[in-house]
């Protein structure tokens, strides 16, 4: 795009083209193809309208010079003619390429409809030719010549502007019409960075997308033409201005901002002359369209907030250099400051008031003061690990592994990580489960006689509150259940053994076994739970602290 200010409609069109091009990588649907057709029509209308405006402007410049009849300005007519010649040449080339693409797309001569909007193979061969590896991957088709013409036009335009620029700006006036992937900031993939402009621009795209792109290129070229004609218009007029005093001004977006967010202020010079092009010197400065003002942006630094307080003051400065009518440069210093406030970190949980060790404790961590710029980072947390929710950056799962857990909340902004707060939580052990032994509807206790002719049910029950808040962490499994029989003063002997993987649902034991048939009333039996473990939310086996051998061996008396 050229350096001129775009109309809202042209900005919208350019953004739509970028979005639709990205959608091509996901799905070449009929709706997207039709959207490209509509976009092509809009871009064509904009480019044609701007071309007409440029022609009118060129005619007005020449007419004004002829009316003045001052030989001092006659050379400007030659500049206008050269601008029109070079621009018409590149526009005509783009028109010729559009006609050839319409033939590839089988355009209906009566309706103007492109029937084969999704044609890709013939379109690719048109641009890259019969050998797409020729010329170092640029191919031997139309794309290589198009790039050369666009580059040449851009270089010519910048050179022309530099020769006649009254302020002699150091930077090129117009941004490139073609950017190689290796230097294009919009190309982020390393693999794509190695490709040529020709390949990356035309590979895998349907013909209708490239027809729309050619119209976008015409619009870009017309923007350059507009900038050159405005230069010529300035050369054909004489402006004399005098300045008694200059005042630097600024318009900050806010007087106080949250640490980690962006502070922005517009700075400029209080002079009523569009021909004055001040130079703005300082870090974080971006020149606004038109060149008479600039925007200074910096990250609010939380380090300016004194310890134990919630607000501090951050200073900034810039220098504005203004060319005077006598050829001198006047330097105007600008200094300012703004308040930096410590953002409040809000931690919410719909379920938990405590953090449980080796469990998935779900929390929502938000910093309302940062708004959409909140980009949380939890890499500095201590005492366990943090699992992020890919669908919601505010939602995290904390898995504590020590007695305390330090939740360090940071936010990333413009490549900088700002620590917002550190919160320390005590970590508690999950409550132990209970073991229930029953016969029928009766819950058995050590003093309750056991009827050997009825089945015994053994079940591990999670703590009710723990199970309601962290159900996926309140799961239990055992290896097996062993039944021991101890006749009188004799040693205990194993009489029954069953697997107990589903002990949380309940395991039934049939005590009517041969080893117990000779048992006497009052003899002791023991139910031993072997290998009882907790299963956490990650389906990992976790030890249950505090469960002693007495908890896992339940005594009973036979009837």
Question: Short description, anyone?
Answer:
The protein is α+β, with helices and mostly antiparallel strands and 559 residues long. The protein has helices at residues 8-24, 30-68, 74-104, 121-128, 134-137, 142-164, 190-193, 197-202, 207-235, 464-469, 514-517; strands at 248-252, 256-258, 262-269, 279-281, 285-287, 293-299, 311-323, 329-341, 346-348, 355-356, 361-366, 376-377, 384-389, 392-400, 404-413, 416-428, 434-439, 442-443, 449-450, 456-461, 475-477, 480-486, 493-499, 507-509, 524-530, 533-535, 541-542, 553-558. It has four domains: 8-235, no CATH class; 248-341, Sandwich (Immunoglobulin-like), CATH 2.60.40; 346-428, Immunoglobulin-like, CATH 2.60.40; 434-558, Immunoglobulin-like (Sandwich).
What low-confidence regions span 5 or more consecutive residues with pLDDT below 50?
A: 238-244
Major sheet characteristics: 5 strands, mixed
Number of H/I helices: 11
Can you tell me the number of structural domains? 4
Rounded mean pLDDT score: 83
Q: How far is the first residue's CA from the last residue's CA?
A: 95 Å
Q: Taking strands numbered 1, 2, ... along the chain, how are they ordered across the largest sheet?
A: 19-28-25-22-23
Give the helix proportion (percent range).
25-40%
Whole-angstrom Rg: 39 Å
Residues in β-strands, percent: 25-35%
Global shape: elongated
Total beta strands: 28
Structural class: alpha+beta
